[in-house]
Design goal:
about 45 residues, mainly alpha
């Protein structure tokens, strides 16, 4: 267990990889960014 161990967290940090022990932190998409409140849906009248 240490920097040379590929399965440990410290080993993943040292080698710069991700896995089960050190998952990637995903950025959340904010719902306000998806739907703009200012623009209204145009309807044919």
């Amino acid at each position: 267990m240490g920097k040379g161990d590929k399965k440990s967290r410290r080993g993943k940090i040292n080698s710069g990889t991700f896995g089960v022990r050190r998952p990637r932190i995903k950025k959340r998409v904010r719902p306000e960014a998806k739907i703009s409140v200012d623009k209204k849906a145009k309807t044919k009248a």
